[in-house]
Amino acid sequence: MHEVIKKALKENRYPTEPECRKVLEDYNIPVLKYKVAKSEDEAVKAAEEFGYPLVMKIITAKGEHKTEKGGVVLDIRSKEELIDSFRKLSQMSEYGVLISPMVKGIELFVGAFQDEQFGGVVAFGTGGKFVEIYKDVSYRVTPIDREEALRMIRETKVYRILLGYRDEKPRDIEKIAELLVNLSRLVEENPEIKEIDLNPTFSLPEGVFVADARFIL
What we know:
Layout: H1 3-10, H2 17-26, E1 35-37, H3 40-50, E2 54-58, E3 72-76, H4 79-90, E4 97-101, E5 106-115, E6 119-126, H5 131-134, E7 137-141, H6 146-154, H7 158-162, H8 173-189, E8 195-197, E9 201-204, E10 207-210, E11 214-216
Antiparallel strand pairs: 1-4, 2-3, 2-4, 5-6, 5-8, 5-9, 6-7, 8-11, 9-10
Helix pairs in contact: 3-4, 6-8
């Protein structure tokens, strides 16, 4: 069991997003670069490092969807917007706020859960806010290898877009398969995690990156 999961269970809470990202990084699952800011000065420094536009989110240990409670601000384009957003969100979060670059790419759904009958299951498909409407998701019982991960990807409608469609350049399918294999290993070695939600994960020309992470224990 990963130390982050042990700590969260001991404290009777869910892991925060920075903690989830630490677990992902330890399993070689790439995450979008980010900074945690607990003051306006730290928020400004993060903006100076990343440049605009930015995304700012509350940090919670309750495992809830941040968007549904107004805990996410997208497309921050100035210092004034940054400070206004920090003041608003910091009142909702005892752990500070998470700041990362605003990126545009192909949105993927990547997740996993523990099934009572089959054990660990990984999921892949079309991501974004309409994930539950599209229902373009492929599932596999863990563990999976590279070939099984590639079959998962090919089963989805988003696969055609990943190959290159209209103004979208072809993406590195192997990188996505590698992410799924590493997620499978994470699930196998940490069955205490009941649900993993990595929506959205962005497929960019330079690689694939998790932009949001939520673990339910």
